[in-house]
Amino acid sequence: MATLSDIGLAAAINILSALIFLLLFAILRIQPFNDRVYFPKWYLKGVRSNPLTSGAFVSKVVNLDFRSYIRFLNWMPAALKMPEPELIDHAGLDSAVYLRIYMIGLKIFVPIALLSWSVLVPVNWTSDGLQLAKLRNVTSSNIDKLSISNVERGSDRFWAHLVMAYAFTFWTCYVLMREYEKIAAMRLSFLQSEKRRADQFTVLVRNVPPDSDESISENVQHFFLVNHPDHYLTHQVVYNANELAKLVADKQKMQNWFDYYQLKYTRNKEQRPRLKLGFLGLWGKKVDAMDHYTAEIDKLTEQIMEERKRVKKDDKNVMPAAFVSFKTRWGAAVCAQTQQTKNPTEWLTEWAPEAREIFWPNLAMPYVSLTIRRFIMHIAFFFLTFFFIIPIAFVQSLASIEGIQKSASFLNPIIENKFMKSLIQGFLPGIVLKLFLIFLPTILMIMSKFEGFISISSLERRAAFRYYIFNLVNVFLGSIITGSAFEQLDSFLKQSANDIPRTVGVAIPIKATFFITYIMVDGWAGVAGEILRLKPLVIFHLKNFFLVKTEKDREEAMDPGQIDFYATEPRIQLYFLLGLVYAPVTPVLLPFIIFFFGFAYLIFRHQIINVYNQEYESAAAFWPDVHGRIITALIISQILLLGLMSTKGKVQSTPFLLVLSILTFGFHRICKGRYESAFVINPLQEAMIKDTLERAREPNLNLKGFLQNAYIHPVFKDEEYEEDDQFERLTEDSDDEDCVVVPTKRQKPRRTSGGSSQSLPFNRFDTDKAKPKP
Length: 774
Prior knowledge:
The chain has 774 residues and is mostly helical. 61% of the residues lie in helices and 6% in strands. It folds into 2 domains: 4-195 and 368-680, no CATH class; 198-353, no CATH class. The protein has a 4-stranded antiparallel beta sheet. A hairpin with a 5-residue loop joins strand 8 (750-751) and strand 9 (757-758). It is globular and about 85 Å long. The termini are far apart.
């Protein structure tokens, strides 16, 4: 069990690591040759010039202005200087609301910390519960005197913890309600002021029923001309182009290798580069590298052309889905938010994601297979969570010197060293847990992709939800249960079964020391490492040396990255959980969490302003998930406090804590009913207002030209599309024109969406220019 000196050593190591990262960043960021690594967002916006294009050679590489080294910390006030409205215009609402999560942490925990240190710490410190617990062989340290473990069993002092639990809950709920109201208003305002985008007019339709007389495209066109005659504009069917996408990716890899060898040859024209065709280029026939990759590129180009023709001609490659665009946002909102037919399993509509955030491979998955895929992933996630208890138990064994001495007595000479003992208990468990979790977000994202979600935002939200559950079950509950067993091993073995719950009740708050060490490793040094961007720095310079030939190549070599919501948001939620659980139990943990929220806010604000370039904009659609998880953490803290006080002989507190949990859940339902609709439904009134303003400002808008190719698969976008007569350009009076009647291919009666069987020998089609003859 970590003592105060162990935590002090861990704090020194992590603070020193964070300072080294920050110092390296401060020096590297002002070097001209690193400018694109640390300021890529400004390059993408076209407002920052390349410092390598002018001046002497040395000044192009190294910053010779020594005054800039004196001002190496000026990035901190600069990161805080940009006001929030300007930040929203610069980086989007998603980034601004993401930063507000850190501010919410400060708003919640700073007052809670002041209150708990003023009331609970004196109550805990002046008690003698741990002195009595030592008689039962319960392990503790001097830092645990600040926790609820030091309060004697059955003492009236527990009423102070109960009152504080109510105060913490009411304050947290007040902050959450104010934030929910503010963010909901920000979202509606952002959507109203947002520039025109294709997804505002477009709906994704899935499970299009087969028709023996019409193709998928004709069926979609027929359905929407009949059921949305005044608002339907155009559509784009979904192709299964996964094989084609693989060929295009392979061609790009070959092109990169060709560029590498061509650049190598231009630097040394005396000898053409050669390579071996065997495994990893270690053996095999030696050939001319440039000729080899030229032949491979030509071969793949032919395969791509053939595959494109096959995809377009073969009806089997057309999926029963389509992107349907409407003339107005109001028409799209009505279609996306209503049921289209009596059969709820056909013609399923939802808002189309932004074209840039679509995960195209998953659009080719049959809709009926999604339920099976998700069931399989539920089972896989259960076993992943269950078996991860093993490494969690290993981590907790490292946190217990007594456990190591009992299971590995040959390590006693090393463990008995005071410095090594402090290092093992104060630093090693946190870093080992961090290493065990390093690949988990990637694994969960792969699982989300297998489930068939079609947008990057939905993939990230599902992966974030699973990561949150994993942290709750394994990192939090698993660490408490396994750690308590290891640390109280002697007590568990020697006492009767009836006394074990009491021992666990004392041991749970004692695990705060482990979480303190983990917060310092992950939330201090880990966040500081984010700003250094060591991996993008190395990759950029490797690409710049081996592949870059033009300024365009150099721009493509930049990797601005983005906020990995699926990896960072669950981490924030773990800190909310730890703070809310331990605020009435072990307040000593709160300053470490407060420092994390403040430090992370500064770091990520700088990154959002200067580095990150988001792949999509959801207008803070993730906020209800964030709110719900904080409420969940609040209820968990109340339930755990209920169980803890029961084991401490204060059963009278049970009704009060149950009532508190019910009130908290009721507050969540109120917020859900009052504000959540703003995040899941697009109000028709807002859509109509935006449509009316747009028609007034741009009466000659060519909307069809804007939407025509918005949702074409990226592998087709380099083709030249010939417009059919049915895709003529819109004119200023096109919305007021009538439709002509054209024959349909369907020659037999068909049951319509209304359920009545009738003959439909004609199909309506808007040709824009044509008018019915008198």
